[in-house]
Amino acid sequence: SNIIKETKKAKKSHKLVQIPSLSQSIPDNVQYLLIGGGTASFAAFRAIKSADPTARVLVISAEGYLPYMRPPLSKELWYGDDVEMAKSLNFHQWNGTARSLFYEPEPFYTPVEELNTTKNGGISLARGWKVKSINVSEKKVKLNDGKEISYNKCLIATGSNPKTLKLYDDAREEIKDKFSVFRSIKDFEDLWEEMNNVKSIAIIGGGFLGSELAASLANKGKKNGVKIYQIFKEKGNMGKVLPNYLSQWTTEKVKNEGVEVITETEVQNCTLENNGKQVNLILNTGKNIVVDHVIMAVGAVPNTELATDAGLEIDSKLDGYLVNSELQARTDLYIAGDCACFYDSQFGRRRIEHHDHAVFSGRLAGENMAGAAKPYHHQPMFWSDIGPLVGYEAVGIIDSSLNTVGVFAKGNPKDTTPLANETHQNIPTSNEDLEVQLKSNGEALTENGYNKGVVFYLKNDVVVGIVLWNLFNRMSIARQVLKSDRCYRDLNEVAKLFNIHSD
Ligand code: FAD
Ligand code: NAD
Ligand code: NAD
Q1: Is the CB of 209 under 6 A from ligand 1?
Q2: Which among 337, 280, 277, 275 is positioned nearest to 304, based on CA atoms?
């Protein structure tokens, strides 16, 4: 069929850009070698350059693009009417200013051939090239074509890869063609094309990616006539992160965006339908859904391909390269971003798959590569935007299995009645109590919803995490509250620090 042909064409239209085209142009030895061209690597080269202005840095990136940020791929790029802007990978930020996905334009990078001869050093990028192995004791890496490069200091910032479903792994090629994952510019461009060619898409997964993308695609789908389904195990969107009442509320918002959300459901099997034009997803509830395309948004796995050969240790619980507080795996070898399992002196071993951690850990690794020897002392934040009405920022341990206390502004967010009447406090002894309290208290809340507020996550009565719900520019207050590491008696008082009604 035309749909199948066009979809395949869209997938095939991408050729991996490889610059330089021959690896002999790449230097044989470099002062700083960064493996991976994502956010952590970008933050590292910026930090190296500011600590050591004549540094010579070589970035090797398996993707054929200049280093770029991923967050707008599932959000901003899908909104707005300017199609050309989205196609050129520019987007409007929350404050209205236009920005490119790419951190730096092409001329910023020194051609690889000139890296070791320029007077003031520089940052070079070999894109479309992959590091295949590292020899830690000889301090050299091998590229996919066998070329060897030795380094003084090396950073591994290889990020993570999307997980796939077992039913996909076991499926025949014709079925696999109907499925995709979503992480890169290439995935964005393929999906953009797909949205012009299909009438229905199912997203499997209810976490960050599935929820953001479902809302974004439904918004675009309204214009293109594409129906979006979202299927996941949890009771509501972001159910692993948000307390149940907030997750349920968010799910209502996602539904209002036009998504058909199917909760507490797993896909068990799939078959081709309509002469191979569509795929039939067979659900564990006995129901089934027939769609043109399926997106798997079922989590990510850190990319630790280089570990085995190099003899690097992987954390057995959290996965990722094991590093110390200075992000060092071995002498002169550092790890940052999604693939690092690091030691946080406040909360212990952690591995974080978010933008701000990639920025902070990349910067710290860069500083330490240039000689600083600083520990990881920051509490990284993350944020998510699900459609135009739900946006939040968070810091610390955010896990819906913890006890939570939510303090929300009552009434319309634009309401300006005094704070004392407007906050709603719930001090539960367990999550269940909280839900009961919120529900029994629910009339006003259901009517007005959880438009704005703050949620505290507690471990043994100590605040370990904070979600700022539709509240911005208050991250430094949240970090202060976490830093004091105290058992707060009255969280309503703590909530007042956040001035829930001030904007
Ligand atoms: P990556 O960005 O994954 O970069 C790693 C790079 O290394 C890749 O380009 C990869 O191809 C390359 N590479 C891997 N192996 C090799 C090798 N052997 N040789 C050479 N190169 C190699 N976080 C938030 O906090 N907020 C958000 O709103 C948000 N939105 C997101 C939206 C999407 C669609 C996605 C996918 C993620 C989002 N995230 C968000 C998460 C955030 O983008 C990641 O945590 C971040 O990109 C991690 O950065 P990184 O540098 O560790 O890895
Ligand atoms: P996630 O871990 O947030 O969510 C995974 C979802 O898939 C969950 O709903 C889970 O129940 C489901 N799932 C897992 N295994 C499954 C299986 N076998 N069958 C069916 N469902 C299954 O991961 P994600 O949403 O896929 O995001 C991918 C990566 O991108 C993560 O690293 C994430 O942190 C990052 N990301 C972050 C943001 C953000 O911070 N705002 C936005 C987009 C993506
Ligand atoms: P940045 O400098 O763009 O933003 C950081 C500051 O802006 C923070 O103080 C944050 O609270 C505030 N901010 C961000 N989004 C806001 C919103 N929707 N409304 C009000 N204030 C908001 O940070 P960066 O590291 O350069 O960010 C890279 C990308 O991440 C950009 O696309 C940026 O827009 C995005 N970002 C989004 C959020 C969010 O949506 N909540 C938060 C931080 C960064």
Answers
A1: yes
A2: 337
pLDDT at residue number 501: 75
Count Cβ atoms within 10 A of the Cβ of residue 489 and give its class: 0-12 exposed, 13-18 middle, 19 or more buried.
exposed
Ligand 1 pocket, 60 CB below 6 A? yes
pTM score, two decimals? Answer: 0.91
pLDDT of residue 13: 59
Residue ID of nearest Cα to ligand 1 atom 12: 36
- C-alpha span between 129 and 136 (Å, rounded): 20
The Å distance, Cα 286 to ligand 3 centre, comes to 42
Residues of the chain with pLDDT under 70: 1-13, 410-449, 485, 503
Q: Report pLDDT for 484.
A: 82
Q: Is 253 in the pocket of ligand 1 (CB under 6 A)?
A: no
Three state DSSP letters for 147-177:
CEEEEEEEEECCCEEECCCHHHHCCCHHHHC
The answer to whether the CB of 237 falls within 8 A of the CB of 250 is yes
Number of CB atoms found within 10 A of residue 61's CB: 25
pLDDT digits (tens, 9 = 90+) for 138-190: 999 999 999 999 999 999 999 999 999 999 999 999 999 999 999 999 999 99
H/E segment holding residue 396: strand 390-396
**Pocket (CB within 6 angstroms of ligand 2):** 74, 160, 165, 204-210, 212, 232-234, 266, 297-300, 353-354, 382, 384
- CA–CA separation, 471 vs 383, rounded Å? 11
Q: Is ligand 3 within 6 A of the CB of residue 239?
A: no
H helices present in 113-271, as ranges: 166-169, 173-176, 185-197, 208-224, 244-256
CA of 163 to the centre of ligand 2 (A): 9
Provide φ and ψ at 220, rounded to 5°. -70, -35
Nearest listed ligand to the Cα of residue 392 = 3
Closest residue by CA, ligand 1 atom 38: 71
So what's the pLDDT on residue 250? 95
Q: Which residues make Cβ contacts (< 8 Å) with residue 7, sequence separation at least 6?
A: 177, 193, 194, 197, 198, 293
| Residue 495 Cα to chain centre, angstroms | 28
Residue-level pLDDT at 485: 65
- Token pair, residue 301, equals 């796995």
pLDDT value of position 503: 65
Alpha helices in 228-354 (DSSP H): 244-256, 307-310
SS3 140: strand
User: Which amino acid residue places its CA nearest to atom 32 of ligand 2?
Assistant: 353
> Which of 355, 356, 385 has most ligand 1 atoms within 8 Å of CB, for mutation?
355
For the beta sheet containing 293-296, the strands, ordered from the edge strand earlier in sequence to the opposite edge, are: 179-180, 293-296, 200-204, 227-231, 259-262
